[in-house]
Amino acid sequence: YFELAADKLDNKVEVLIAKASIYEPQGEWGKYIETYEKGVRISPMDLNCIVNLAFGYYFTQRFEEALKYNAIATNLAPEAAWNHLTRAFVIFAREGSTMESRKALENVDEDHDWYLYGFYFQELFEGNFEAIPGLLENHPRGIDNKSTRAPKELLAAFVHRHLGREKEAGTAFREALEITTEEIKTHQTDHRYYSALGLAHAGSGNRKEAIEAGQTAIELLPLSKDAFYGVSPLLEMALIYDLLGESDLAIDHLEMVLAIPNFFTTEFLKRDVRYKNIRTNNRYEDLIARYSPGH
């Protein structure tokens, strides 16, 4: 009914934005893009339409168009953090971290919810592991944004694991488990906290508890409910399975994500060293080849 009514008022930007907000969680990215393209034609300087059109292009791997509209948005609102974050994330998805993505992130205030997320992956992708302890020290709560909850101990554990520091990794995973076990008591309906708990359990060797927590996160926010944020529990379930040494199940979940439009690409995966065991699975190279941007 809303769409039928909205069609009669589709020359109004406010109505188009409302329509697009319905398409986003449904994963109707073609309609989402079409709606914002129309919004930009009607009102070429409307920042909301421009920003969200860039996001639509980003999620559908139309990276040059995403960067074009992101540049327009940044010129209109150079102080807006999300313009700079979007630029960095588009670059992550297209080719991994670069000096351009770093410069974009440097325009974001350190107290922004997504600052640590951005710089953690910037350093991780570049192999600047020595920079991560200081980064985490300056953000003692770790990552806590709309998509992800990850205590700094959990973030540190993955770096130790990658570098082969098994003792330090084990200690950090157990510390993360203490934190997430306490936090889950007051976040019983939040998928982010169950994913974090599952990762901490997996890193601590608790298979049953890890899988249960990861599955609970997926049930709390399935793709059918939110095609935008519902990707995160699947990615973290894949990471849980990777930690447990079950690379086939990890790849199964990664394929679910790579098969649909979203922020996560094979370029992101290739540089995300948190995923370790999948690299030696015979299916890994095929996964990369089949879902590479532009394939």
Mean pLDDT: 95
Strand-residue proportion: under 5%
Distance between the termini: 38 Å
Main beta sheet strand tally, sense and closure: 2 strands, antiparallel
What would you call the structural class?
mainly alpha
Number of helices: 17
Strand order, main sheet: write it out: 1-2
Helix content: 55-70%
Radius of gyration: 19 Å
Shape: globular
Would you count the extended β strands for me? Answer: 2
- SSE run: HHHHHHHHHEEHHHHHHHH
Low-confidence stretches: none
Structure description:
Helices cover 66% and strands 1% of the residues. It has 295 residues and is an all-alpha fold. A hairpin with a 4-residue loop joins strand 1 and strand 2. It starts with a helix and ends with a helix.
Question: Which properties best describe this structure?
Answer:
single chain, 295 residues, mainly alpha, 17 helices, globular
Helix-strand layout with pairing:
Elements: H1 2-7, H2 13-26, H3 29-42, H4 47-59, H5 63-76, H6 81-95, H7 99-105, H8 115-126, H9 132-137, E1 143-144, E2 149-150, H10 152-162, H11 166-183, H12 191-203, H13 207-220, H14 231-243, H15 247-258, H16 266-271, H17 284-291
Helix pairs in contact: 2-3, 3-4, 4-5, 4-6, 5-6, 6-7, 10-11, 11-12, 12-13, 12-14, 13-14, 14-15
